[in-house]
From TrEMBL:
It comes from Dysgonomonas macrotermitis. The gene is rsgA. Monomer. Associates with 30S ribosomal subunit, binds 16S rRNA. InterPro entries: G_CP_dom, NA-bd_OB-fold, P-loop_NTPase, Ribosome_biogen_GTPase_RsgA, RsgA_GTPase_dom. Its EC number is 3.6.1.-. HAMAP family: GTPase_RsgA (MF_01820). Belongs to the TRAFAC class YlqF/YawG GTPase family. RsgA subfamily. Pfam families: RsgA_GTPase. Residues 90-258 form the CP-type G domain. This is Small ribosomal subunit biogenesis GTPase RsgA. Its cofactor is Zn(2+).
């Protein structure tokens, strides 16, 4: 059995590698991303790799290797190498880069399931869970809602009412590190060879939950510092953990902001259960704001559709429309610039 099968390597990835001009070089998966290097788990060991100059300066930030990527590398001693190529990504989780209009940041790639961690205390925010779910479903990743700190007093009926539109679409787990059986159920939902990522805001107990899940598991990181490239492990970065008898877990730092990087705003209707009502609108291009015969507004006014879910849908759709339009405009400018550069090159060549 191929050792990397445990980390998700399969026949499709093998076929992708065979199409690369570097198919005879070793391949591996990015376990940790540091400022200056990448840790790669491979058939021949754990390598600290840097990028080629061409790759470093010719790619946008979100195109550079991220945790979960499969890469081809050139070793130059028993523990160091250079990344030569990145295999095409699938099921990649992005978010809009903070402080930008349309730039996006890569969180992890080749993800099978994404666990959205919320806590059942003052941090509980169903609107934030919807935001995570929308982005995860956009990338064909299976979302799972984890409601943590279930040992604290909370109103189960009230919580169920707030998430009833989510429960109808995705699995929901109530967990607590003080209730081992809840951790066991969560661990059993992760199959061998699967890659799962944990996302959530700061303060929801994600780190404690991940530590409980990964007890006795193998960290793939060596002791390397973020600042110098030579120090020790910290908890402020994305990293991959091989779980005993289970899958591969990618932990992520807590985020304060999770901006949508969605190219298809229309998908939000399906995600928030708006589409079933929208099909009955009088106009096909109904915006669900003030049109006569809008079945969505009728459902809201009649108390059938939760007004807060509707408001969340409108907010997320405006945000994704803005990102999509800005992304389209950015691509258009890049295409025009590339065309101009080619024209200049041709003029010089014809002189």
């Amino acid at each position: 059995m191929n050792y990397l099968n445990t980390y998700g390597w399969d026949e499709k990835l093998d076929q992708l590698k065979q199409k690369s001009i570097h198919e005879n070089l070793p391949h591996g998966r990015v376990a940790v991303v540091h400022r200056t290097c990448y840790e790669i788990i491979s058939e021949i060991g754990l390598f600290q790799c840097e990028l080629t100059g061409n790759m470093m300066y010719s790619k946008s930030g979100f195109e550079l290797p991220c945790v979960g990527d499969w890469v081809i590398f050139q070793p130059f001693d028993e523990s160091k190498g250079i990344i030569i190529d990145i295999l095409p990504r699938e099921r990649t989780l992005y978010r809009k880069k903070s402080g930008t209009v349309a730039d996006k940041q890569t969180i992890a790639s080749y993800v099978d399931k994404a666990f959205i961690v919320q806590s059942l205390d003052d941090n509980f925010n169903v609107r934030r869970a919807e935001r995570f779910m929308a982005q995860i479903l956009e990338e064909n990743i299976k979302p799972i809602l984890v409601l943590n700190k279930a040992d604290l007093p909370f109103d189960k009926q009230q919580v169920d009412g707030q998430i009833k539109h989510i429960i109808s679409q995705i699995p929901v787990f109530f967990t607590s590190i003080r209730q081992p059986e809840t951790i066991l159920r969560l661990r059993e939902s992760i199959s061998e060879g699967e890659t799962v990522v944990f996302v959530g805001s700061s303060g929801v107990g994600k780190s404690s939950l991940v530590n409980a899940l990964c007890e006795g598991s193998t960290l793939l990181t060596s002791d390397i510092s973020l600042s110098t490239g030579k120090g020790r492990h910290t908890s402020t970065r994305r990293e991959m953990v091989l779980m005993d008898g289970s899958g591969v877990l990618i932990d992520t730092p807590g985020v304060r902001e999770f901006g949508l990087a969605i190219d298809n705003p229309d998908s939000l209707g399906e995600i928030l259960n708006i589409s079933d009502y929208a099909k009955s609108c009088r106009f096909k291009d109904c915006t669900h704001t003030n049109e006569p015969g809008c079945a969505v507004l009728e459902a809201v006014n009649g108390g059938i559709l939760d007004h807060k879910v509707y408001e969340s849908y409108m907010k997320l759709q405006r945000e994704s429309w803005h990102f999509s339009a800005s992304e389209h405009e950015k691509r258009k400018k890049e295409k025009s610039l590339s065309k101009l550069i080619e024209e200049v090159k041709m003029r010089k060549a014809n002189r």
